[in-house]
Amino acid sequence: MHGSPPGATTSFHADGQDTTAPGWLKLLEMIDAAVADGREEFRPLPELSPEERRQIVTLPASIGRLTAVRSLVLYGSNLVRIPPEIGGMTNLEEFDPYTSRRLHWFPYEITRCARLVRSTVSTRSIYGNYKYRPPFPRLLPPGDTVPDIERDLGNLDPARWGTTAARTCSVCDGPVPVTGPHQAWLSRTVATDVLPLLVNACSPACLDALPAGAKGHLPTPHRGGAIEQPPPS
Question: How do the domains of the chain map onto residue ranges?
Answer without folding.
Answer: 22-208
